[in-house]
Amino acid sequence: MSSAGIHHVTAIAGEARRNLDFYTRTLGLRLVKKTVNFDDPGTYHFYFGDEAGHPGTILTFFPWAHSAPGRIGIGETQETMFRVPEAALGFWTQRFIEHGVHHDLPKKRFGETVLTFQDPDGMRLALAALPGIGGEAAGRSDVPAEAAIRGFHGVNLLVADAAPTAAILTEVLGFREAGRDGSLVRYKAAGEGPGKVVDLHAAGDFLRGRLGKGSVHHVAFRARDDAEQVAIAAVLKERGIVPTEQKDRNYFRSIYFNEPGGVLFEIATDEPGFAVDEPADHLGEALKLPPFLETRRAALEKMLPELD
């Protein structure tokens, strides 16, 4: 079975307005969907990505203003990596200085130059400066198109033992081992484009992670359609892993499971996409609710924090 790579990453934030400002204004991503957490509708669910909200570019957040800080540990995503053109690294270094973004000096990882940084809630992020990358760039801020983020490079997962997680990546999701760099083992999905990389960091006997603001909640991998999702679920069941029933998230359909290393994985369909309930030119402008919550719109709009 082959994988198209990462579909989206979902994380926990603190204050909603600050989260929105950082990802749209500082990083220059487009808000492609403003909705609510379907399981906790008193909370926003923001989706940030490229202009069209392509799979492999989407970072989503549940902003819970009063959540305690998370703790990085075993069974969590340690770092979420974006792609930028190789020549853009100087621009981003200067931008982080000007905007007061906590960042480290550029370093080499798997032969790539990587600039690590944190968002206002302490979420660990990185820019991988890559040669020859194209893709659609978001154009809704003062970030010039030639320097703009081009979706995900991938994620870095912190696990006690890499082998069980690697087996899921290679035998279920179709990744292949692509290299080793110190304590990291890299796995790649076939083809070009965003969201093709998963790095495993085996840390042995280390503290388990604790979810909170600044933490990644789950990593979603792509299924082209329902049939491919069903096929992936069947392979998981053969390995003794029973995923959840399919959940309709309006913009994709999902199943979830905990991989052996403790990280929550999702399999999300590419279809129907983010233009299913509003025009592509106006993505993210209005609060969109699933049909089962429309009768509560007035109450929810009063409950949700102001964003303007």
Query: Which range best describes the helical content: under 10%, 10-25%, 25-40%, 40-55%, 55-70% or over 70%?
Result: 10-25%
Strand order of the largest sheet: 2-3-4-1-13-16-15-14
What does the largest sheet look like? 8 strands, mixed
**Hey, roughly how much beta strand do the residues contain?**
25-35%
Q: What separation lies between the terminal Cα atoms?
A: 46 Å
Describe the structure.
- By secondary structure, the protein is of the alpha+beta class.
- Helix content is 17%, strand content 34%.
- The chain is built from five helices and 16 strands.
- Strands 2-3-4-1-13-16-15-14 form an eight-stranded mixed β-sheet. An eight-stranded mixed β-sheet has the order 6-7-8-5-9-12-11-10, covered by helices on one side.
- The longest helix is centred in the C-terminal third of the chain and has 13 residues.
- The protein is globular and about 50 Å long.
